[in-house]
Sequence to fold (243 residues):
Amino acid sequence: MSEPKLLVANWKMNLPDGFAEWGQSLKKQCASAFDVHKIALCPPSTHISVMRDALPEGIDIGGQDCSEFQKGAHTGDISATMLVDLGCKYVIIGHSERRTDHHETNEMVKAKVEQAFKAGLTPILCVGEKLADREAGHAEAVVSEQMLASLPDDPSGIVLAYEPIWAIGTGRTATPADAESMHAALRQAYPHDDRENVQILYGGSVKPNNAKHLLDQANIDGALVGGASLNPLEFSGIINAAS
Ligand code: PGA
Fold:
């Protein structure tokens, strides 16, 4: 068995039917893979405490975003410290849906990562290219640049997630070879001595039938899963594909 992988469920703004039983069903389907790999759930923030209490041991909880500010007059936002108070270990930052819907820039994303670290959370920093960047052959340069502009001076302990925008929720996945090449490029460009240890997740239409080829790649250390994570059977298929 190789290194433990990190498998993160990102429910986005969805609540699956029977969500309170999600963790128990998942555990039942996973057998030994559950003890080997690291598993986390990022539910909508309104349901973090409900899910925290409903999850079996072995699944960590995380937020889907945090504020770039520590506290104050920011109606509707949630601080990194508040996520810690709810029992979160992780927080997804800079997801392309937030970069698009909320016009988050690399500077804002970097400030959020800094807040997350300050509060004691592990940030999962998302980066990814548009289809036009890939078709023009610029994908690795664009994504490396985005990563460098979003990282704080000391990024040690961060988790990176490479999510090509054209693959998110579309059913189109990067080929294992293209994903591996991007992950290797990001590891190379990562501006810190611990580049060999930084965990780089792949995200974008990961499903039980494509997970194994992706997770078998040397530089793919786990997956950030949206749609397929809503169903414990599908998510367990992905976890079980991690060898
Ligand atoms: P998807 O989402 O698995 O539904 O493509 C992945 C993500 O956005 O994190």
Observations:
- The chain has a mean pLDDT of 96.
